[in-house]
Amino acid sequence: MKRKKDIILQLSVRSIRLNFLRSLLAAIGIVIGVVAISSMGMMGANMTMSVTEQLSSMANVLVVKADTGGGGGGGFMGGTSGGSSSKSSSSSKDYITISELDDIERTAGKYATVYPLYQDSDTITVGGNEGRATIYGMREDDMTTVLTVEEGTLPKTAGAVVIGPTFAERQGLTIGSRITIGDTDTNETVQKVRVVGILKEKGMSMDLNSDNAIIMPEKSFTGLYGGEEEYDQVNVIVTDIANVNTTKTTIEDQLNRKKNVVTIQDSSRMLESITSTVSTLTTFVMAIAGISLLVAATSIFNVMMMSVTERIREIGILRSIGTQKGEVLRMFIYEAVILGLVGAIIGAIMSLILGWLVVLVMVGTTKYFFTFASLIYVPVSMAIGIAICIFSGVYPAWRAANLDPIEALRSD
Amino acid sequence: MTAVPVIELADVSKIYPLASGDVVALDHLSIRIERGEFVAIMGPSGSGKSTLLNQIGGLDVPTSGVLRITGKNIRKMSDENLTNLRLNAIGYIFQKFNLIPLLTAYENVEYPYILKHRCNDDTGRVSKLLADMGINRRLAEHRPAELSGGQQQRVAIARALINDPDILLCDEPTGNLDTRTGAQIMEMLKALHDQGRTVIIVTHDPSIGAQAERTIRIKDGKVEEA
Question: Which of chain B's residues have a Cβ under 8 Å away from the Cβ of A320?
Fold first, then answer.
C-alpha cells in the first residue's frame, strides 16, 4: 500500500504555521464576521418564533363586525375606526342584529364559544378627576364564561361593574370605589356605578381588551347608551385552533350569502405584519454584520498577498523543479481555505455562546435557541465566511501561479 | 550511429523586446550536447549564458530557431508540458541551493518524486540518494536553514537526481561554497558523470570549467569556441 500524501497541502499548512500570528489575525476577522452574522440571524429567528407563539395564543379568536362597506376594516390595530364614521356608508347599519347573532351561534356554536359585545368610549369621573374609558356591555352568562375575576365578584345588579387591572391601577380604584360615567357638564345621561370586581390580567387580545376597561351587564349598558340587541361585535372563540378557518368560512357563507353583512377579522394578518417587520429588521441587522465579513475579506486578501510576495522565490523554486501552475494555485487556495475553516469553526463555537447571550438579552427567552430555524444560521454564516476566504484568496493565488519562474527565482 | 543528442540548439535566438530597443541575448546559436557528456558553458556576465541556461532548463523558450531537449522541440510545448519536462528530464542544481525552506532535507528530496508519482517514496530511493551524498538520517530531518552550505548543496544534488533525469544542469554549483566544499561538490558531479550521466555546468570560474570534458564559451550571445 502506497501512502498518499498531499505535499501541496503540507506546504500550505506549514506556511500558515510559520506565520502563525499573522494567519491567526486574519482568521479572527472571519471569526468576528461569522459570529456577527449568525448571532444576529439567530436573534431574528428567535424573535420571530417568540412573537409567533405569543400571537398564536390569540389565533383562535375571530371578531365578527358589521360590514360597513369600509373594505373589511383595518384589522386589530385600527379596529375602533370602523364604528363612528360608518353611518354615511351604503350599508344601512353598523351593528350586528340579534338574528345575525343567532345565525352565528347556530353555525359556529359547535366549534366555538360565541358572545356578543357592546362597546363604547365615554368620559368618566373618579374622585373629581375626569378621564376617558372603554366601556363594554356583556350578557351575564357570557361574563361567567369569558371573564376571570381576580378580586371581588361579577356584577349582578344594575350600577355594578367590573374593571380591568390596568384600569384599576391607573385610576387608583379598589372594590367599592365609585365611578361616574358620562359627561357631567353636558346634558348627557350620567350614571354612577360601583366597582364590585377587578379582573385578572389578560394581556393583549383581539376580542376583548378587558385589562383597561369597564365592563357592565347588558342591561346597564343599554340603559346608558340605548341600542338594545344591536351588538358592536361578536367574538367567536374557536375551541380547536385547527377549525379557525373552517369556522370563519362557515360564518361568512351563512351570513354573507346575499350581500356582505359581516366582516370577520382573524389574527393572521397581524401575525403576518409583525413577522415581516421582524424579518426586515433581521435582514438589515445581518447586512450590517455582513460588513464585518467584508473587512475580514480585505484582511485575508492582504495576508494572502503578503504570503505570495514573501514566497516569490520559493514559488520560483517550486516551478523550476516541476511544480505545475495549478499546483501552486492550489497551494495558496488551500491556505485561504484553511484560514477560512479555522475562522469559521472558531466563529461557530463562539456564535453559539454569544448568540445564546444575545437571544437571552434581546428576546428574553432561549426557549427556541436549539431549533432548526435558529441554529441554521451557524452553518450558513460558516459557509459565507469560508466562501469569502476563498474569494479573497483567488487573486493572490492566481498571481502566484502565473509568476514567471525565471523572475521569481531571481528575486530575494 | 545516429543517437539523439540530449540537447540540440539549431540557430536559436532569444530577443527581449524593450522600449529602448530589442536586446539580443542569444544570437543564432547552435550547440549539440550528446548523452553522457560533461560540458562546461562559460562566459562573462552578460554573455547570454544565463539565458542559454534558462532555455536548456525548459524555463524559457527561444524566440526563433529549434531547441530540442531529449529530442523534443520545446518551442511548441505548453506550459504544462514544459513543467513536466523540468520535472522528469532535468535535474537542477543552483548556486543558491534553492531548497524549499518549509520542507526538511528528506522532504525536499522526496518532493519531485511525489509530484511525479503522486505518492510517497516507499522504495527507499530518497534515503539511498541522501546517504550517497553523505547526508545521514539525523541531518535529513533538518530544515535547509539548519544545514551548512555544503550540506544544502548535497541535498540539492540528491533532489536533482530523484527522478533520474537525462540532464544534470548546474548553475554555478560551487559559487556559494568555500574552495574545499566546492571541490567536494565537483568530485560528486564528476562521479555522477562517471556513472554515465550528462552533466552541464554553467560557470564563469575557469578552474571549474577546466574540470569538464568540453567547454563551450559564449560571448555576446554567440558561441565563441566550441
Answer: 57, 59, 86, 92, 98
Smallest CA-to-CA distance from B209 within B199, B220, B201, B219 is with B201
- pTM, two decimals, is 0.72
Tens of pLDDT, residues B95-111: 999 999 999 999 999 99
Q: Which residue of B has its CA nearest to A14?
A: B102
A residues 279..318 contacting B (CB < 8 A): 313-314, 317-318
Give the C-alpha distances (Å, rounded to integers) separating A346 from A290, A293, A352, A354.
17, 15, 10, 12
- In the three-class reduction of DSSP (H, G, I as helix; E, B as strand; rest coil), residue B40 is classed as strand
Other C-beta atoms lying within 10 Å of the C-beta of residue A40: 26
- Check CB contact under 8 Å for B119 and A319: no
Confidence band of A77 (pLDDT split at 50, 70, 90): very low
For residue A343, CA distances in Å to A43, A121, A337, A388 come to 21, 61, 10, 11
Q: Evaluate if residue A84 carries a pLDDT over 70.
A: no
Tell me which residue of A338, A275, A290 sits closest to A39, measured CA to CA.
Answer: A290
Cα–Cα dist B6/A5, whole Å: 33
Element spanning B129, H or E: helix B125-132
Output B57-61 pairs: Cβ under 8 A, ≥24 positions apart. B57/A320, B57/B86, B57/B90, B57/B92, B57/B169, B58/B82, B58/B85, B58/B86, B58/B89, B58/B90, B59/A320, B59/A405, B59/A406, B59/A409, B59/B86, B60/A406, B60/B14
Across chain B, mean pLDDT equals 91
- Packed helices B79-88 and A325-362: angle between N→C axes, nearest 10 degrees: 110
How many residues belong to chain B? 226
Report the alpha-carbon distance of residue A368 to residue A41 in Å, rounded.
13
CA distance B216 to chain A (A): 23
**What pLDDT does A76 receive?**
43
Q: What is the pLDDT of residues A231-243, one digit of tens each?
A: 988 988 888 777 8
> ipTM of this predicted complex?
0.92
- Distance separating alpha carbons of residues B29 and A352, to the nearest angstrom: 69
**Strand-pair partners of A121:** A134
B88–A325: do the CB atoms touch at under 8 Å?
A: no
**Which residue, among A310, A321, A328, A331, would best test binding to B if mutated, counting the most B CBs under 10 Å from its CB?**
A321
Average pLDDT on B126-138 reads 93
pLDDT number for residue A75: 42
Residues of B with CB under 8 A from a CB of A: 54, 57, 59-60, 79-80, 83-84, 86-88, 92, 94, 98-103, 107, 110-112, 114-116, 118-120, 122, 159, 163
Contact B166, B57 (CB under 8 A): no
Please tell me the predicted confidence (pLDDT) of residue A3. 53
Question: Is A323 an interface residue toward B (CB < 8 Å)?
Answer: yes
The CB density around residue A394, as the number of other CB atoms within 10 Å, is 16
By the 8 A CB rule, do B155 and B133 touch? yes
What is the Cα–Cα distance from A297 to A290, expressed in whole angstroms?
A: 11
Of B59, B84, B102, the CB nearest to A406: B59
**Rounded Cα gap, residues B136 and B127, in angstroms:** 8
Q: What long-range pairs does A141-144 form, CB within 8 A, spacing at least 24? A: A142/A115, A142/A116, A143/A215, A143/A217
Between the alpha carbon of residue A71 and those of residues A66, A75, A109, A187, A266, the distances in Å are 11, 11, 27, 36, 15
The domain spans of chain A are 2-55+272-410, 92-258
